[in-house]
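Work through this protein:
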Amino acid sequence: MHFVNQSHNYDHPWSHVVIGMWHKYPNPKCTHVVSIDVLDRSVDPKTGIIRTERVLGCKQKAPKWIVKLFGGSEDAFVREISFIDPRTQNATITSENLSLSQFATCLEQIRYSPSSTPGRTVFLQTAEIQARMTLWRSAADGLERWMAQRFEQNAHLGKMAFTDVLRRLWEERERMQAVAA
């Protein structure tokens, strides 16, 4: 089993970051994400929490030994469930691979919350990557290592892409305020 943990502080308020979440894809820095389908979105009338369930379609090349051993293609799908709580200003996102999940799982959890520094947002990300093959431990270890490396590469690209999205949204907001003034 491999674990990946990351944190980052965005120089944007929580509300801006949450709006940016919905504008992250499509993105030229994350070309591996090729589709996003919203399966369900609801608001809890008692708590005001917004729940969204999506499926992300990705294209990523896997090493030849993985394709030969486990089959599959470069098409992969990820299920994502997010909860946005405007009262507590917490946004949590959980995602898990659907493709090849009989062989390995990647369970990712993300949390956005206000920083103690006004106007900033804390981003926490964890991923648990586990191969489900006890028979071939060396193959399982190799698969986990590859998945962890790919996860870290995509997380880095995702952070750069999201920073661009937030910058673009902020610039658009400032342009609109200037026009309205």
User: Anything to note?
Assistant: Helices lie at 14-21, 64-70, 137-180. The chain has three helices and seven strands. The CA atoms of residues 43 and 179 lie 33 Å apart. The mean pLDDT is 90.
